[in-house]
Amino acid sequence: MNTADSAEACVIGVDYGTLSGRAVVVRVRDGKELGSGVFDYPHAVITDALPRDIAGDGGTRLPGEWALQVPNDYRDVLRIAVPAAVADAGIDPAAVVGIATDFTACTMVPTRADGTPLNEVPGFANRPHAYVKLWRHHAAQPQADRINRLAAERGEAWLPRYGGLISSEWEFAKGLQLLEEDPEVYAAMDHWVEAADWIVWQLCGTYVRNACTAGYKGIYQDGHYPSEDFLAALNPQFKDFVSTKLEHAIGRLGDAAGYLTAEAAAWTGLPEGIAVAVGNVDAHVTAPAAKAVDPGQLVAIMGTSTCHVMNGAELREVPGMCGVVDGGIVPGLWGYEAGQSGVGDIFGWFTKNGVQPEYHQAAATAGLGIHEYLTALASGQAIGEHGLIALDWHSGNRSVLVDHELSGVILGQTLATTPEDIYRALLEATAFGTRTIVEAFRDAGVPVKEFIVAGGLLKNKLLMQIYADATGLQLSTIGSEQGPALGSAIHAAVAAGHYADIREAAAAMGSEPGEVYTPIPENVAAYEELFREYKALHDYFGRGSNDVMHRLKAIQRKASGITSEAAVTGVPVEVSA
Length: 577
Fold this sequence. Notes:
Blueprint: E1 10-16, E2 20-27, E3 33-40, H1 52-55, E4 68-69, H2 71-89, E5 96-103, E6 108-111, E7 132-133, H3 141-154, H4 171-181, H5 183-188, E8 191-194, H6 195-204, E9 209-210, H7 211-216, H8 228-234, H9 241-246, E10 250-251, E11 256-259, H10 262-268, E12 275-277, E13 280-281, H11 282-289, E14 297-302, E15 306-312, E16 323-326, E17 334-340, H12 344-353, H13 357-365, H14 370-379, E18 389-391, E19 409-411, H15 419-443, E20 450-454, H16 461-471, E21 475-478, H17 483-495, H18 502-509, E22 513-517, H19 521-542, H20 548-560, H21 565-569
Parallel strand pairs: 1-5, 5-12, 5-13, 9-10, 14-20, 20-21
Antiparallel strand pairs: 1-2, 2-3, 4-7, 6-8, 11-12, 14-15, 15-17, 16-17, 18-19, 21-22
Helix pairs in contact: 2-10, 3-4, 11-17, 13-14, 14-15, 15-16, 16-19, 17-18
């Protein structure tokens, strides 16, 4: 056990999101959150062209469905958000006994042997494949399709563990895309690293692969990755991908990956030598923060996307799930994961692109944000009054269809349709997407007994009530606004030796429930009718009756004139300022 005074000992949890990183200082003995700091990534999400401040004036243009990030933005979270959190807490940094991080996933960093990201290596700054591929990078769908077809043809035993389909967001699809589109970058890459592990490597100087992403995103099951024979059948040059690029020592969740280096101590202002926990995923660390460590407790972490995680006592194969992993959330139980690729992102897209200026002006006059203003208007509607049904696929479908070539639908619009009508229909669509996931769990013998929501979207009371009514489940929100960061702090306390395991730490440090939303019977009945329409559209467009969405994607790529040539060659395409 760390020799720091247990009554005053603190840990730091750092939550790496899609657009920013947040650090929270947490007291070990009771989980009290003492202070926080946030840092917005300067380069945010790169979707159109490489940043000129790094890649030069050429501004290499990106093909469609790309989403990249800059790894140094992640280091700056340690340099800026962590000291800010300590200052906000008003504690002596010497009281900090451990630090842990969580990350979006599957977010991949190509590195050299010493952990240097390839985009920082001379000669690679203008090569898109040298950058971080964010979780929502969906340009590897063709590679994912080939992986799925071949695995199904060969009857690969691991495929049912992932609901029968591997996502384009995951390690193997993105790695195969890198090989086939820029073999020079692939050859220069020594390690294909989850960002969750890369940031831990930066903190402690030791590269340890975490059991969570290895299992859910890296197709690591029962001690094995897909075979060399399988990989060679995809592409002969991919045969040794696991042995030469991916495979590494795997750390158990809650263990220490190493100890804070002098360099990282200088970045953060924390004591050198404190414990650095094995990395983890933002959704999975939130389960202990919500005290949801028993079977049947479904935690939905709702932000730009939603990830659904739940423990189970037994192994079940759930069609369309992101995966089931032994010890994937807490050791000793099977951890299940599902997800929706777009939730808050969809609401943000609509308010940015689909709401006329007078609504924004009215919101400002009322002293409200546009989301709050539209929510207030939509709250006055009866269920079904807008006459709309939507599909929540604006960023593809992660579960249960696992197809990122799918796209959004809003059906029933007329000349009388208003922005609040569409906004409410989109809120409802995401609730129906979650219900589809809940029913898939139930039908596979993994019943949901409790529904807990964490993340930024729990602040929207209308949205929470819609979820309760649409699923028919009582919904409770986590009491902490920093669920993932609190969950990481819990792991840090275990890694520092202050608790025996995650379960014990969660009992002492986890957040008590916040607000509770009970399904309203008449609303449940009204949403039952709308859900039937959602399900009909879901199956019509998503299960092969009409592949128009795939055809439209192909037409779009052809018409745009943007191919992967720039990504392969690194030859910049001029983009106007």
